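Title: Comparing notes on inverse folding

I've been comparing how different people in this forum approach sequence design from structure. To keep things fair, I'm posting one structure and asking everyone to reply with a full sequence. Here's the target:
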């Protein structure tokens, strides 16, 4: 939260390495690239940085996998954090487009990079644009997964874990 909302961008040096080992799960390939989830230009101007881009740049620095900012935010959307699942999907419908500077090839293997995933609506909207453009494979890499209490309980049960008392359900 401090990284994203409190302008503590230097935290990327500690957060990026948490994601870096996961890049190997996508395999070694010269067609592999990191694609940060874009912010709308007005939100970027307000915040002063794109946290997803900072994470992608740090991962790239450590792995050598290039960053390709293939997506743009075509329209400003409400912040996803305040929306229910169905509202999130509708909020990001048509919100992303292929950047005019990038032309993905069918052989491209892209990894979307974002800071937090809750319902996956943003990642799905980005993936839809890339697949429609002809990309053969799109992976997803996020720093954190925000599970709602009901989903968290199901996650713990699925993995044979006991739900900590402070979380309840």
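Reply #1:
Here's my take.
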């Amino acid at each position: 939260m401090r990284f994203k909302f409190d302008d503590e961008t230097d935290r990327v040096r500690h957060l990026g390495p948490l994601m870096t080992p996961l890049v190997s799960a996508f395999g070694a390939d010269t067609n592999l690239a990191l694609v940060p989830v874009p912010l709308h230009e007005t939100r970027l101007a307000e915040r002063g940085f794109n946290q997803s881009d900072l994470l992608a740049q740090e991962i790239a620095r450590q792995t050598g996998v290039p960053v390709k900012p293939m997506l743009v935010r075509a329209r400003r959307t409400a912040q996803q954090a305040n929306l229910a699942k169905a509202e999130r999907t509708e909020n990001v419908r048509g919100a992303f487009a292929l950047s005019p500077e990038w032309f993905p090839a069918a052989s491209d293997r892209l990894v979307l990079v974002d800071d937090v995933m809750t319902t996956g609506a943003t990642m799905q909207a980005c993936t839809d644009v890339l697949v429609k453009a002809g990309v053969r494979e799109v992976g997803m890499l996020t720093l954190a997964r925000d599970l709602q209490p009901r989903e968290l309980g199901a996650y713990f049960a699925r993995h044979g874990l006991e739900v900590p008392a402070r979380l309840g359900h």
